[in-house]
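To illustrate the input format used throughout this study, we show a single complete record. The first block contains the structure-token representation of the backbone; no residue identities are included at this stage. The design step must infer an amino acid for every position from geometry alone.
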């Protein structure tokens, strides 16, 4: 389930169809609904006025609103709290839907009030919800002046790290490639399909290693779990990698899931198994996965993976090589709630990210310790999962991709930043949390996309 977010206050006014209904045998009292409008998304909130032009008092007006997606697919029903309508008076009323995942589409609110004495008054409001517009543009309107609202991204972390502010500078360049070494990316999800890195030197499906990189038909990356060209084939992929990928670069679309850098590309480097795990026998494959990302043009590697114990030295060498080749490696502190940054996040050349909850405090599961670089939102994060549903996920795994996304935005406008300089800017522009200055829970603090992108652009 997607968690409810605090309402944003972007009120949108719209005059609805108004239906007046005469009450009483001789029409001596008239109640009408006017000015029905949608006043907010997340939660969807409606407001309207009720006018009573007659002399009769209605002590207990009740109501019900039905929300449907055109043409007539029910989405939610919500009630209007009872209220009193004085004679010759006007009452302003608000009601909120529990509808949580606001998909782009065209909708209808049907409002019915029971004013008593068997009389019903109703009004209808059509409206539509459109995806976030990139580059940032005013909400579009069509010729019919249909009320149009722009989606609110479901991930609370997106605004917490000022990503939309950063989009006034860049929402990401397709030249920037983020390798997601994880459990695989479900690239059949429309909002991820456009984000996939494409190996232009490889002809898909011809059984030939056209670019002679050692991997046959590796068009979007490589599956080091099955040793085949796609996470979509072979052993079923776990949803973890799809969640990580969507936080980095999901495009706006029907679902209100938008990545931090929804213009960059994702390289799918599958390594984790169908249970989202790996074993000590897999270190060589992990090493090859890192080398694949580096050799095939990744600018950033997201490693939302932690290991028990210390990796073999050849793996450490692969990580060091990535850093030496100018690839930024973002890792995690681990999810054991312990005072120890786990490998590979523990390596000096990996930026270790801890997780905060929506409260702004370190998430209870997040490891801390010497070596924490920065923190990012990682609790109850709305993401896609394999198969295309939206889910809420928690873990330092979902904090790291917020940071990888910010770094991808920085590289989008400052292509020549070295890993060290990019991380330095990220740390300098983070908002300090916890004890003053660096600390072992939040590191240098909460990343701020706008501040980081602005500082990167000033170099
Ligand atoms: Ca190849
Ligand atoms: Ca081929
Ligand atoms: Ca596969």
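Output of the design step:
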């Amino acid at each position: 389930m997607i968690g409810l977010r605090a309402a944003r206050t972007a009120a949108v006014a719209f005059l609805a169809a108004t239906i007046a209904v005469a009450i009483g045998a001789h029409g001596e009292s008239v109640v009408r609904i006017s000015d029905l409008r949608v006043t907010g998304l997340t939660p969807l909130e409606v407001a309207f006025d009720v006018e009573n032009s007659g002399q009769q008092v209605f002590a207990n007006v009740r109501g019900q609103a039905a929300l449907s997606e055109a043409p007539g697919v029910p989405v939610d029903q919500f009630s209007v709290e009872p209220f009193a309508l004085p004679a010759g008076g006007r009452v302003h009323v608000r009601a909120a839907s529990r509808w949580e995942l606001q998909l782009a589409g065209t909708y209808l609110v049907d409002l019915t009030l029971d004013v008593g004495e068997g009389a019903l008054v109703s009004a209808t409001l059509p409206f539509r919800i459109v995806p976030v517009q990139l580059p940032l543009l005013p909400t579009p309107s069509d010729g019919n002046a249909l009320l149009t609202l722009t989606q609110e991204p479901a991930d609370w972390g997106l605004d917490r790290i000022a990503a939309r502010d950063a989009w006034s500078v860049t929402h990401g360049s397709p030249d920037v490639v983020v390798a997601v070494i994880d459990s695989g990316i479900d690239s059949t999800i429309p909002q991820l399909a456009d984000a996939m890195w494409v190996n232009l030197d490889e002809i898909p499906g011809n059984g030939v290693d056209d670019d002679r990189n050692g991997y046959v038909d590796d068009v979007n990356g490589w599956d080091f779990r099955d040793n085949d060209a796609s996470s979509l084939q072979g052993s079923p992929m776990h949803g973890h990698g799809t969640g990580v990928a969507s936080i980095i670069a999901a495009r706006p679309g029907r679902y209100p899931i938008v990545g931090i850098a929804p213009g960059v590309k994702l390289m799918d480097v599958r390594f984790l198994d169908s249970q989202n795990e790996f074993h000590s026998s897999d270190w060589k494959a992990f090493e090859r996965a890192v080398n694949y990302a580096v050799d095939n043009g990744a600018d950033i590697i997201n490693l939302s993976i932690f290991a028990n114990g210390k990796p073999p030295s050849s793996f450490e060498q692969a990580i060091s090589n990535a850093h030496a080749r100018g690839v930024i490696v973002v890792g995690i502190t681990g999810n054991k709630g312990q005072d120890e940054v786990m490998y590979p996040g523990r390596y000096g050349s990996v930026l270790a990210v801890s997780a905060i909850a929506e409260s702004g405090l370190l998430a209870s599961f997040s490891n801390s310790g010497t070596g924490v670089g920065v923190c990012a939102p990682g609790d109850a994060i709305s993401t896609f999962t394999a198969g295309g549903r939206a889910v809420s996920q928690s873990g330092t795994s979902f904090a790291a991709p917020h940071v990888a996304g910010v770094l991808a935005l920085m590289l989008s406008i400052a292509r020549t930043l070295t890993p060290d300089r990019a991380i330095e800017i990220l740390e300098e522009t983070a908002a300090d949390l916890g004890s003053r200055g660096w600390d072992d829970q939040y590191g240098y603090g909460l990343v701020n996309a706008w501040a980081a992108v602005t500082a990167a652009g000033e170099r």
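Structural context for interpreting the output: The chain has two domains: 20-150, 156-457. The first strand starts at residue 20 and ends at 23.
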